[in-house]
TrEMBL record:
<feature type="modified residue" description="N6-(pyridoxal phosphate)lysine">
    <location>
        <position position="220"/>
    </location>
</feature>
<dbReference type="InterPro" id="IPR015421">
    <property type="entry name" value="PyrdxlP-dep_Trfase_major"/>
</dbReference>
<dbReference type="Pfam" id="PF00155">
    <property type="entry name" value="Aminotran_1_2"/>
</dbReference>
<keyword id="KW-0032">Aminotransferase</keyword>
<comment type="pathway">
    <text>Amino-acid biosynthesis; L-histidine biosynthesis; L-histidine from 5-phospho-alpha-D-ribose 1-diphosphate: step 7/9.</text>
</comment>
<keyword id="KW-0028">Amino-acid biosynthesis</keyword>
<comment type="similarity">
    <text>Belongs to the class-II pyridoxal-phosphate-dependent aminotransferase family. Histidinol-phosphate aminotransferase subfamily.</text>
</comment>
<feature type="region of interest" description="Disordered">
    <location>
        <begin position="1"/>
        <end position="24"/>
    </location>
</feature>
<comment type="subunit">
    <text>Homodimer.</text>
</comment>
<keyword id="KW-0368">Histidine biosynthesis</keyword>
<dbReference type="InterPro" id="IPR015422">
    <property type="entry name" value="PyrdxlP-dep_Trfase_small"/>
</dbReference>
<protein>
    <recommendedName>
        <fullName>Histidinol-phosphate aminotransferase</fullName>
        <ecNumber>2.6.1.9</ecNumber>
    </recommendedName>
</protein>
<dbReference type="InterPro" id="IPR015424">
    <property type="entry name" value="PyrdxlP-dep_Trfase"/>
</dbReference>
<keyword id="KW-0663">Pyridoxal phosphate</keyword>
<keyword id="KW-0808">Transferase</keyword>
<dbReference type="GO" id="GO:0004400">
    <property type="term" value="F:histidinol-phosphate transaminase activity"/>
</dbReference>
<dbReference type="InterPro" id="IPR050106">
    <property type="entry name" value="HistidinolP_aminotransfase"/>
</dbReference>
């Protein structure tokens, strides 16, 4: 008798490992393990969320009309070429399902966001990993790995957990070097934090091509990680394919309402940006003072390499931080065995982290 078994690929998905212990009973951690907004959501999003409460016996708008129009207004893009999902993770799954399956290859980069791997395996496609150079995406290495079977190329720009980015000119070079049948998916989750002259979220790359999709999230700058909202902007045919793959009610009423308010709340965005601009350099500098190597980040987190000393591994540092009530993210899943990803927190959280690291590293 044949035994029940999931499709090939499902068993190869590495389980998600949260930094927070599951049995902690809601202990008050200083949680710098997930890359969320330390200021929380803005007042406008909160107001819209509360207002939506009276409507939650209804199904949400399947067309996501108000939310798509708000995103279109904020970024000056065509709402008909936008679709939304329950977080950008769902969008990554949807686009992978829509364009890749068994026998197809999907290209990623060495330390690229792990959500890509999960989606590729879940779709039954084969991941192909291009090497990076000093924790930065190597466009030529990616182009070299593309072939007739490559259906999608994922690029997280800036990337999590490295915090590094490649300039728009390099993204254009990547697009030009990939085969035309390969959909380039630009995951711009941290674009709002990266205000560099040579960087863009990819909007104009989408507009100049018929095979580029940009994916964005409300979980970072907009502080709505718990509501699960992400969106994509791309060619009409690609958006249509994603819409065919997605459930009609995938983004809840409350999530659509809060996100529509959040995306137009530029005041909260500026406050968040200012907070990050002040504390990212502070944290980087203070971590270096206690002997940690910090990679330059354009995001709301830092990749920190713990000094290699046989008597003091990353686990000992994690244990010490946990005793002080602080959580950060180990990134051995990314092949970065002696590194931690540390999110920029509120002032008191940043100071507590630096003090605790100083205790164990000095
Ligand atoms: C690069 C990148 N893409 C996508 C996501 C998924 O975000 P969400 O599903 O919350 O929108 C994350 C979350 O950490 C991320 O770092």
């Amino acid at each position: 008798m044949e035994l029940l078994s999931p499709r090939p690929g499902i068993g190869q998905i590495k389980p998600y490992r949260p930094a927070r212990p599951p049995q902690d009973g809601g202990a008050a951690w200083v949680d710098l393990s997930l890359t969320v907004n330390p200021l929380g959501p803005g007042q406008k999003a909160l107001h819209a969320y509360r207002h939506a409460a009276g409507q939650i016996h209804r199904y949400p708008d399947w067309a996501q009309d108000q939310l798509r129009r708000a995103i279109g207004q904020r970024y000056d893009i065509n709402p008909h070429r936008i679709t939304c999902a329950a977080g950008s993770d769902e969008m990554i799954h949807l686009v992978t399902q829509a364009f890749a399956g068994p026998g197809d290859e999907v290209l990623c980069h060495e330390h690229g966001y792990r959500g890509f791997m999960k989606a590729i395996r879940a779709a039954g496609a084969t991941p192909v990993i291009a090497a990076e150079r000093d924790l930065v995406v190597d466009v030529e290495a990616m182009i070299d790995r593309a072939n007739a079977k490559t259906k999608i190329c994922f690029l997280a720009n800036p990337n999590n957990p490295t915090g590094t980015y490649i300039p728009t000119e390099a993204v254009q070079r990547l697009r030009a070097g990939l085969p035309p049948h390969t959909l380039l998916v630009l995951d711009s989750a941290y674009a709002d934090y990266c205000r560099r002259d040579n960087y863009s979220d990819g909007t104009e790359v989408v507009e100049n091509c018929d095979n580029v999709l940009m994916v964005r999230t409300f979980s970072k700058m907009h502080g709505l990680a718990g509501l699960r909202v992400g969106w994509a902007y791309g060619p009409a045919a690609v958006i249509e394919a994603i819409n065919q793959a997605r459930g009609p009610f995938n983004v809840s009423i409350a999530a659509q309402a809060a996100a529509a308010a959040a995306v137009l709340d530029t005041e909260h965005e500026e406050a968040t940006y200012a907070h990050n601009s002040a504390w990212l350099p502070w944290l980087s500098h203070e971590l270096e003072q206690v002997g940690v190597r910090v990679y330059p980040s354009v995001c709301n987190f830092i990749l920190a390499r713990i000094p290699t000393d046989p008597s003091l591994g990353v686990q000992a540092v994690l244990d010490h931080l946990a005793r002080r009530g602080i959580l950060v993210k180990p990134v051995h899943d990314y092949g970065l065995i002696d590194c931690l990803r540390i999110t920029v927190g509120r002032e008191e959280e940043n100071r507590a982290l630096v003090a605790a690291l100083g205790e164990i590293l000095s």
